[in-house]
Design goal:
The protein has 473 residues and is of the alpha/beta class. It has three domains: 106 residues, Rossmann fold, CATH 3.40.50; 220 residues, TIM Barrel (Alpha-Beta Barrel), CATH 3.20.20.20; 93 residues, no CATH class. The protein contains 18 helices and 15 strands. Strands 10-9-8-7-6-5-12-11 form an eight-stranded parallel sheet. It has a four-stranded parallel sheet with strand order 2-1-3-4. Helix 10 links the parallel strand 9 and strand 10.
Length: 473
């Protein structure tokens, strides 16, 4: 019996056993329930003592799986390794591999392709900080603030300069508020903080014992921090005082840069959450994304996952240095992805490709034989360009050239062309071969005349286009 036979079965006594790991059990039950209702079959789910379904193997199933007599068929995750005939012989039941992603089960049963995941919910607030805001022209501040808001920032943080006292704080906060933006103030100076609160700032970054006496009188929400990062005892005392004075607050145990106590600071967040399960918390993710010389998207994803699992409801981030220039948009994508994954108890894979920017989520490679066959079938002089098998490929009806250098490949091709290549066409070919070379370096799918996929960067830079030569429509 194939999956199509199963989908057409209407005998309500027909029973299918689905096998999975613990992490996917609840999600699998939800998906299969809908399928079973529509196709009128019974089902059961077995979890043979393993967390992740992708780690299943037929040898393990022979030892751990129990298949009751009333089971008619067993469907395994598509990732399951081993010989299914051994399972069928051992249990006396037909076994088959289902799809690798449980969300593809409706299509597997002939009920149509899965619905696109909607990542419209999140639980983490983004506070986007404009560093050294008091030194910048107001027009530049407003432009940055609106860009951050478009990319996902819920609050705009006015970052003041330590050691300086600016008389512009009231003007800046008032202008941001007049633009309809929520505002926080990042300063330990009393004059600056009071000016910001009077102009409409709703959050003060930050409060410890050095400024508690005057900050607590403003009756504005504060970010409570320890007197020094490792001094959680001082944070406990501060929390008691804030509660006693009825000052609204959220707690930030302070995440420290890698090399300066990063792992220990993560432990502090866990300790604070364990001790105060209901208190609001914040994390300053910019301490990692700005201070670590690495593309920030993956870092933001991991930090978002930590926040989601620990119930940290807000983050403070910046996007000053070039490698995290899109940190707000990245964290916005990450917070939606981790919220969906944690809520649905799904691995965050094949849900969204927004954060896959340098490489591509899918790769459809052509074999050397396929490229050779294609080159032999061409009947016109239009150039086709491919980036496959670690090389650049250029072909038309007059030849097939391949190599690692676009200059060398192009030079060899020009030697055989019966008709001269115009300057316009040469420019087009150079542009396309440069894109093909870039795709090779990054591990991206290259398609001639088609834009490459850049994840969320493609949306942020939607105005970029690929020129198409008139001879290569």
């Amino acid at each position: 019996m194939t999956s199509q036979n199963i989908s057409s079965a209407t005998d309500s006594t027909f029973c299918i056993l689905f096998v999975t790991g613990r992490l996917a059990e609840s999600s699998l039950r939800e998906v299969v329930s809908g399928i079973a209702d529509r196709l009128q079959f019974q089902f059961e789910i077995a979890v043979p003592g393993i967390q992740v379904a992708a780690l299943l193997h037929t040898g393990l199933l022979i030892r751990r799986l129990h298949v009751a007599p009333h089971i008619d068929r067993v469907i395994l995750p598509g990732w399951c390794q081993g010989n299914l005939d051994e399972l069928s012989a051992h249990f006396g039941k037909p076994f088959e591999r289902g799809p690798k992603d449980l969300r593809d089960l409706p299509e597997y049963f002939g009920l149509g392709k899965r619905r696109q995941v909607v990542l419209d919910k999140y639980s983490i607030e983004i506070i986007g900080e404009i560093n050294h805001a008091t030194r910048q022209p107001l027009s530049s501040l407003l432009e940055q603030a609106h860009a951050m808001a478009r990319h996902g920032a819920d609050v705009i943080d006015v970052g003041c300069v330590p050691g300086e006292v600016s008389v512009r704080v009231h003007e800046i906060v008032r202008a941001l508020r007049q633009e309809g933006l929520r505002v926080s103030i990042d300063s330990f100076d009393q004059a600056e903080v009071e000016a910001a609160v009077n102009a409409g700032a709703e959050l003060i970054l930050s409060c410890n014992h050095s400024n508690f006496e005057w900050v607590s009188k403003l009756q504005t929400e504060v970010v409570a921090i320890p007197d020094t990062p490792s001094d959680l005892a001082s944070l406990d005392v501060l929390i008691e005082k804030l509660v006693l004075e009825r000052v609204p607050f959220r707690v930030d145990p302070i995440i420290e840069p890698i090399g300066m106590g990063f792992t220990a600071s993560l432990q502090r967040y866990m300790s604070v959450r364990e001790k105060y399960p209901d208190v609001a918390m914040m994390m300053g993710t910019g301490n990692i994304t700005e201070m670590t010389e690495v593309d920030s998207a993956g870092v933001s994803m991991i930090l978002a996952a930590i926040c989601e699992e620990l119930g940290i409801q807000s983050v403070l981030t910046t996007q000053v240095i070039n490698w995290c220039r899109t940190a707000v948009a990245e964290f916005d994508a990450a917070r939606r992805l981790v919220h969906y994954a944690v809520s649905a108890q799904l691995i965050p894979k094949h849900l969204s490709s927004a954060l896959v920017m340098l490489r591509d989520p899918n790769w459809a490679a052509r074999t050397s034989e396929a490229l050779q066959d294609l080159a032999g079938a061409l009947t016109d002089s239009h150039f086709r360009i491919f980036a496959e098998q670690g090389e650049l490929h250029l072909m038309n009806n007059q030849g097939y050239w391949r190599g690692h250098s676009p200059f060398a490949v192009f030079a060899e091709a020009l030697k055989t062309q019966k008709n001269s290549v115009s300057a316009e066409h040469a420019f087009y070919l150079g542009y396309e071969m440069a894109r093909a070379e870039l795709a090779l370096h990054l591990g991206k799918q290259y398609e001639q005349d088609a834009p490459m996929r850049w994840g969320l960067l493609g949306d942020l830079n939607a105005s970029s286009t690929v020129a198409t030569h008139p001879e290569n429509p």
